[in-house]
Amino acid sequence: MNPMKELTVKVPAADAGGYRIEIGTGFLGSVWPKIESQFGAAGKFVITDTNVAKAGYLDKLVSGRNVPGYIIPPGEMSKNMNTLVLIIEAMENAYLARDTVVIALGGGVVGDIAGFAAAVFKRGVKVVQVPTTTLAQADSAIGGKTGVDSSLSKNAFGCFWHPSAVYIDVAMLKTLDDRQYRAGLVESVKHALIADEKYFGFLESNLDAILQRQSDVLEKVAYQNCRIKAQVVEADPTERNQRRMLNYGHTIGHAIESASGFELLHGEAVAIGIIAAGMIEIEMGLGDGKRLERIRKILVGLGMPVKKTANISKSALIDIIRRDKKAINQWPRFVLIDTIGHVHRTEGQWAVEVKQDVVENVLGKL
Amino acid sequence: MNPMKELTVKVPAADAGGYRIEIGTGFLGSVWPKIESQFGAAGKFVITDTNVAKAGYLDKLVSGRNVPGYIIPPGEMSKNMNTLVLIIEAMENAYLARDTVVIALGGGVVGDIAGFAAAVFKRGVKVVQVPTTTLAQADSAIGGKTGVDSSLSKNAFGCFWHPSAVYIDVAMLKTLDDRQYRAGLVESVKHALIADEKYFGFLESNLDAILQRQSDVLEKVAYQNCRIKAQVVEADPTERNQRRMLNYGHTIGHAIESASGFELLHGEAVAIGIIAAGMIEIEMGLGDGKRLERIRKILVGLGMPVKKTANISKSALIDIIRRDKKAINQWPRFVLIDTIGHVHRTEGQWAVEVKQDVVENVLGKL
Question: What is this model's ipTM?
Fold first, then answer.
């Protein structure tokens, strides 16, 4: 045998980048000129859902321009590979080039699938997020997580793919249906719980104004959410450690959402997941019943469920938790807080070990 | 209206990286220990096809270890989203974590789909390429292009996703069927044409030894291919400009491959595409009939077709070319050479303008 031949292929460093988030009320009609001034004549493709289109926001965004696009049925059930294939083939049929900008106008499902379509179309084109829901404006439009579900778990397929710009018009929240509106606010509560006690107090004392959808308060909420999320994402864009803190309440929350067959909205399931995290904290000596009561109160104030329904079995949840993206040896670490606004860390880890029997015990009481 | 609120999210720079390519004869049996020493206890998942498994290479690679994996039917027809979904769900059912290493054991289809699966599973895990064909060892296993086809075009879905290691054992070429073996050598001819006249001469004078599959010559061919491709990919990993030179013969070649319904192998279609490029060069005063004759001779020596069949219409080809990934305003630029070993550039561009009527004219004569 000859001696082995060896070569090394160098992969060059990628430059630092960044993107701007603009927050305001009633400026959707001026978003298209902003996109054109940033991206020029590049091809555009708009992805939205039938609810957003019916509410008139698609017309307001494109205002008479002839723009190719794809309108998906609303809801998590659209967030799969079949929809992705239909979107990509529509993009191909529009003869779009590699300089294309995909514009995601919608909630979390639209943003996640549009971001993923942009990530994989011709090996990657740009995406601009124009979130229309409390969930997307607080969370999913920022940070570059994209993906679709498999038949087994949420976001089984996906990429990290940062948007090139984000436009948050809180005026679009006025027409959001009440259940979705409320559920999406759970991510704001989560941000406060993991990063900012003062913001938690702001949410508590402005709950009525938030539920009345007062623009000035909604802009402040959007700004705080973006500020907190941006800080975390900048420190750890691909979730090696610190970014995991954004999963507070989500490990059990995702499992409940899947196990409910998506009858529960993401935020509703995460609300239950946040309560579960609080119960784990108590079991582990990191929190007390009084703090959990305060958290439960704001979630109930938002109209969230705080207990799982009886038809969701403990064993189904445990099986889904074992498949969690963050699992190592079939068991994930959990994000816990030690005070409101501060994530509990052990040995520099933002997600910590919790034994399976502790989780099973909590699920039994949930 | 309140003044707009603005934030900027910073995306940190990504460090430079790299990966090693090892080339040898008959070392497949020692590849697994090499992978284990590089990646430790991380979960492994092997993707291969039934032909490779039947030839005994899967057994040789894993040698009795119990490794989860997925075996796809051979051929371009497997390279689609349905297969990707089956692979990802098999990975989920193996409860694989984010530290997973996907091992691609096979030809171009296996490598492209396994690389894409790695790119999107849980938003990205590592992939090791163990190419088994002349095509994959010369080209597709190196450089980080991954993807699957849509019903409309090749690699419509995909990511740039660099392998973490590449192991090229030319002994596996001994059992490759003759048609595939020969077609895969067209990428070697392409590398010589765009980058190295001396290498072109080497291929001409060693054609018999290559067709007899002599290991020492095959190792040299593999080394030259990797050297040339690595240089190009390092200079331009995401194909903004220089990397386009690797598409020599591929714009028309891809169209012919698609239009044939994949009855032509990739290399066979690219051989015709290389002839077409040579004819365009003559039309544009960049080459003469003598040079094209020399190129035609080596392709015919490999047993390649050098004319399109009559059932492939010019209009079908033009339509596919308009959808090309590299097209801007529905017409791509073309890579041309001015001498063997040297790509023609205008104004620093490695792919240049060719008018549609020139291409139509050439397709008419092809």
Answer: 0.92
